[in-house]
Write a structure and sequence with these properties.
It comes from Phaeodactylibacter xiamenensis. The protein has 644 residues and is of the alpha+beta class. The chain has 23 helices and 20 strands.
Length: 644
């Protein structure tokens, strides 16, 4: 008669990694060697500093708490619940136990003999990798060694291997560069281009270094129009200096450089500078041949759009591009850069369309310069999906008799822009944090006064506004207005450091849950009852901490959360590991939110904890570890416990 206990153990283990990675017959053999152990509440399973035991443990029922003990007290580090594996570090690292394990309540454990399981790990390295990456290392190291997309994507969700992602592949040069010396005439150069069937020719000095470039666009605009004679020297028509890159660049590198410099050709040199020999050239057409839908093409289409419907279609295509990036393991740093560039271009195009509408209606421009500011996630360059708008407008100071006309013009203008953005799919902000609100369409002096008021009178509402408006980023217009605001904020903070204490208190308003199983903080009421708010509970504590710390360090012009942490790691070597882990955690959370949004066709902010797989719970739970340490650092640095 079959022993039903191993079968029950088998049925339980196969639902949880890493046991779910084993073949059925092997897992059944492992199950037959499992010991079932019972522990009473507070009973110790092993003690910190003890020599390695002979078993690893899986929680069958109940809960186990892991403590790090000092001479004076014990700190709760982790709580293990049903399906969690613990006590494996000695097996992987051959070290003493780093923590003390106690039963938090009546608990049943499955204990697996280490020696027998070592053989399983040797035969199935994916099991060893899972255990090492999820338990032996911290979140930072785990994220660097594991494929980011594999943190959450099942194999069935990922795109097929032949779904090529050209943007991150290295370019291969198949043609020799077409060059000529500076004394070549325009006609001679044009004949060379025609014979070689290329759209550009690179002008080089005797050492083969680039000094200029002539393109077919130059021929159309400067020669065909009669501005230059064919007998003139190419040096009279060429563009200089040449934009150069090294031959090791990826398609994405070239795309972004072309977009940034508004050019269609890139020169490749031995070391990526104009001081080395030319080894190749790439055109926009070359990239288009390599791939169809890419960021550079989308951005150029945006710049040519004349109707909001076309902009919405392009943003839809951008989300397909986002989906491809997420499923093809592209780094969040690259994804956020691309999506931010696309979002920025859409905003700029909406601004241009609104300006054209005003001009066509005969509305006279007041003459005052302005700057359109992105706030919130778009201000931080983190808006991967189409969430609601957060924006503001600053215009230069004008004489008192011109103020009303200037403000009315920009309010009308801002209303048109926000309307167009809403049509594209960026919904109106429910709290009206938009430039079309008279409170957020102000002159430079008014904005300075507003920031000073918030800083010197840090009431709860003022602090809340600062968490939104302090992430402003200039999108279009006179950027000196934005720079003036940044300078003013730092000057105002110099004599009001207490404001940072209030900002720190606000950063602790959403403490992360202790575990992802038993103390999962979900919404208690409303439309999202029983759902987890990944933005408020996980992402904002990190974003708030990063904002506060860079303000304290007087670091400007860096808005992105994980780049803020990277900068902080440089400024504070003693906290480098924590900041790097925080940056990695934020990238994981951004990836998961984007994945949820793509699956559910929404912002990805809320999800039901019961929908999480075991792997997702483990990886998301790891993201909370640096949050807790960061908040402890803020508490100490800004002495928040003293603030009543």
């Amino acid at each position: 008669m079959e022993n039903i206990i191993p079968r029950r153990i088998y049925d339980f283990l196969k639902a949880y990694p890493p046991f779910s990675l084993l073949p059925d017959d092997l897992l059944l053999k492992v199950s037959q060697r499992v010991l079932v152990q019972y522990y009473q509440p507070r009973q110790e399973i092993f003690h910190q500093g003890d020599q390695p035991g002979t078993h690893i443990f899986i929680v069958r029922e109940g809960a186990v708490q892991l403590y790090r003990e000092t001479e004076s007290e014990a700190f709760l580090v982790e709580q293990c619940d049903e399906g969690d594996v613990f006590g494996i570090r000695p097996m992987l690292a051959e070290e003493t136990y780093a923590l003390t394990a106690r039963a938090a309540e009546e608990t049943l454990l499955y204990a697996i003999n280490i020696e027998g399981f070592r053989e399983v790990m040797e035969a199935h390295p994916q099991v060893a990798f899972y255990l090492a990456s999820n338990y032996a290392a911290g979140v930072g190291q785990k994220y660097k060694t594991a494929n980011p997309s594999q943190l959450f994507l099942d194999r069935s969700d990922r795109t097929t291997d032949n779904f090529a992602l050209m943007e991150v592949q290295s370019l291969e040069r198949s043609k020799l560069p077409v060059t000529c010396p500076p004394e070549t005439t325009i006609q001679e150069a044009a004949l060379i281009m025609s014979a070689e069937e290329v759209g550009s020719i690179i002008v080089v000095n005797p050492s083969g270094q680039p000094v200029g470039i002539m393109t077919d666009k130059d021929l159309r605009h400067k020669v065909a129009t009669g501005k230059m004679e064919l007998t003139a020297s190419i040096s009279d028509i060429m563009s200089s200096p040449v934009i150069t890159m090294p031959p090791t660049v990826t398609v994405a590198d070239v795309q972004m450089e072309m977009v940034k410099n508004r050019i269609n050709h890139i020169c490749l040199t031995e070391d990526g500078t104009t001081d080395s020999r030319v080894v190749g050239a790439l055109s926009e057409h070359d990239l288009m041949v390599m791939q169809g839908n890419n960021p550079a093409i989308l951005i150029r289409e945006i710049r040519r759009c004349k109707a909001v419907e076309a902009l919405r279609d392009i943003r839809d295509r951008a989300e397909q591009l986002l989906k491809k990036y997420i499923f093809q393991e592209v780094s969040i740093a690259f994804i956020s850069t691309v999506m931010t560039e696309i979002n920025d271009e859409i905003i700029v195009r909406c601004i241009e369309l609104a300006e054209a509408d005003l001009a066509s209606e005969g509305q006279q421009h007041p003459g005052a310069k302005y700057c359109w500011l992105a706030l919130g996630s778009e201000g931080r360059g983190e808006q991967l999906l189409r969430t609601d708008q957060d924006n503001a407008l600053v215009f230069e100071d004008v004489p008192e008799d011109a103020y009303e006309r200037t403000k009315n013009y920009y309010l009308d203008f801002a209303g048109r822009v926000t309307h167009l953005l809403n049509e594209v799919g960026f919904e109106y902000c429910p709290a009206d944090m938009m430039a079309s609100n008279p409170s957020w369409c102000l002159s430079l002096s008014e904005w300075k006064q507003q920031f000073s008021t918030w800083i010197h009178k840090p009431e709860p509402k003022a602090v809340m506004f600062c968490t939104i408006f302090f992430d402003f980023r200039p999108i279009h217009g006179d950027r000196s207005l934005s720079s003036a605001l940044t300078t003013h904020i730092f000057e105002a903070l110099d004599d009001q450091e207490i404001f940072l204490v209030y900002l720190g208190k606000n950063a602790l308003q959403n403490p992360p849950p202790l575990t992802f199983f038993r103390n999962f903080v979900v919404e208690s009421s409303g439309a999202h009852k029983d759902e987890f708010d990944i933005k408020a509970r996980a992402m904002m504590p990190l974003a708030d901490a990063a904002r506060l710390l860079v303000l304290h360090a007087r670091v400007g012009m860096i808005n992105n959360t994980f780049r803020r942490f990277e900068r902080l790691a440089e400024l504070e070597p003693q906290n480098r590991e924590l900041y790097e882990q925080a940056a990695d955690a934020y990238e994981i959370l951004m990836r998961y939110r984007a994945l949820q949004g793509l699956k559910k066709q929404n912002s990805g902010r809320y999800f039901n904890p019961s929908d999480l797989t075991k792997m997702e719970r483990i990886n998301l739970r790891n993201c909370f570890r640096p949050i807790k340490e960061l908040q402890s650092l803020l508490n100490t640095r800004f002495r928040l416990a003293l603030l009543s």
